[in-house]
UniProtKB/TrEMBL annotation:
Protein name: Tetraacyldisaccharide 4'-kinase
Gene: lpxK
GO BP field: lipid A biosynthetic process; lipopolysaccharide core region biosynthetic process
Role this protein plays: Transfers the gamma-phosphate of ATP to the 4'-position of a tetraacyldisaccharide 1-phosphate intermediate (termed DS-1-P) to form tetraacyldisaccharide 1,4'-bis-phosphate (lipid IVA).
Family annotation (InterPro entries): LpxK, P-loop_NTPase
Record family assignment: Belongs to the LpxK family.
Pathway: Glycolipid biosynthesis; lipid IV(A) biosynthesis; lipid IV(A) from (3R)-3-hydroxytetradecanoyl-[acyl-carrier-protein] and UDP-N-acetyl-alpha-D-glucosamine: step 6/6
Entry GO CC: plasma membrane
UniProt EC number: 2.7.1.130
GO molecular function: ATP binding; lipid-A 4'-kinase activity
Species this chain originates from: Stella humosa
Amino acid sequence: MRAPDFWQIGGPLAVLLRPLGAAYALGGAVRRSLVTPWQASVPVVCVGNLTVGGTGKTPVVLDLARRLAQRQPHIVTRGYGGRLAGPVRVDPKLHSAEDVGDEPLLLARRTPVWVARDRVAGARAAIAARARLLLLDDGFQNPTLAKDLSLIVVDGEAGFGNGLVFPAGPLREPVRVGLTRADAVVVIGQDRHGIAASSPLPVLQARLVPKMPLSFAPGAPIVAFAGIGRPEKFFATLRGLGADPVAARAFPDHHRFRGDELLRLEGLAAGLGARLVTTAKDAVRLPPSWRARVAVLRVAIEWDDTGALDRVLARIG
């Protein structure tokens, strides 16, 4: 589902839903108070967020896996959208997005990934497979596994929305509560909400940049489509690269594309003399017969201050 406008700007409906948001936050707090986290025998680094929807966690996890490669990291993730409960090690040659979700497939091309709805079971399986460091993709609000370092990823354009907890706003928990358990904040993109100025934690500034070479020609007409947390961010990135999106179509997050939908998109592109373009996360959800017919924009994280990042990562020990 598309995030409602009042999650960003507030309004009467947000006010009406505030009691439900307070109950949701209370439920999370009670759960954390009742659980004793399991302490892994290796360091656990969590990359999470305080809001529902996409903020850019996956590129951050990929970059950390590269930077920490000598620590033999394994990634543990829930595998949202997949049918397998796990723990199971993701094999891109064997598994599909329907099995394990789209993000694990992307991550598993670079480093070992375990899908597990039970995070502790996933951590145990990774350690048994000789992981010397665990990267927890999401799971910041999950209290069952102790974290040695937690990074909160924030979309600089959206910030924390209207500052209210779901369903009144986009927050999974109050900002002040979440930040007390975190070690640093990662702001991706321009900080339009003054997060760095108000944060009690170190703030790492970063941006998403396209991987080169592009799989489409800058300046050529394209029809862009995406089923991610903020499709408009993808469309804006394309325009910033000099692409000409003559049409843009947004789908729900983690949408599984059907053949008839893709045929309509292809027909639209043909009528406009354009090429279809989507995100890397969406590409793994395309039927295999469509993957060669759609160009993909792949992105990576670029840090403003890698020294500051290294100082935060040094806390792992």
